[in-house]
Amino acid sequence: MPTSFAPPATEAHMAGNSILARTCLRLLRAPQLRWLFDTQLLLELFVCSNLAVLAGDIVLAHSVNQFRKPAEFIPLYFSAAAPLLLLAGVAARWRWGFRAAWRDIGLLVGALSILVGLAGVLYHLESSFFAERTLRSLTYAAPFVAPLAYTGLGFLLVLNRMTAPRTLDWGRWVILFAVGGFFGNFVLCLTDHATNGFFLKTEWIPVLSSALATGFLVVPVFMPVSRRFLDLCLAVLALQAAVGILGFWFHLRMNFYAPGVNLFERSVYGAPPMAPLLFPNLVALTLIGLWELALHMPEELPSQRGLLNWAVALAIDQAEN
User: What percent of the chain has pLDDT over 90?
Assistant: First the structure.
């Protein structure tokens, strides 16, 4: 495992920076905020919150046919129960020190999440693709990539327990799963917007954006990069967040003017308002991985230091105090 290179003292890092930056540094040094610098805990909370949010997404998506088949309730029940189990595991580990309980609960929820996701893919494809086996049937079938969100979250839980935290490998694995999410988003945007033949030119934006993120962010997973390249990754992530927020507004605006009794009904049968929020969600996951990756990179010359330098120095300062 590559050696972790610690930068000079945080105050020296902050030399020449603004008064605002130094003020933020002092505020973030508060003992109550130490959990913000535990990337393993941040990943756990990320998975927990995503499983909870997926419950709302399932309600919208499966309300199209009023949960016609009993199997459509499975991801809903799982999304309602899994976050509670994970929070119990988080409390057991970080409050009372029971690592074994946290590990076993996470592996169980992770395995079930992987199975729910894979079964969901087969269930969605069965709607028409296996009958016709054409690109057209794939486009107009239930979104076959969507259930893989459960699979990805399940693998993140397994990763958080099977790979040593605060290591270069851990950070690269997190980024790799984020890249997989962006590629899945690319497929979803392509197939979903193809249903109306990309009627609006703006519907190409998330397709191109997710393709850019996939190609850009896969680089630090497989080869050494500088912190300057990680700064470029931050710029790409800022673009993804902006695309997600813009897409959320476009979808919501369309549902406001679409025919229907209320906004919920319009959201069920219209543009899915939560779908574009996957972009900023993946941005958060990538940032966790990039932060850990930056912590294990050699220190560069002062003239070469980038935007991640401040965050790295702050994280190391928290670990030492």
Answer: 49
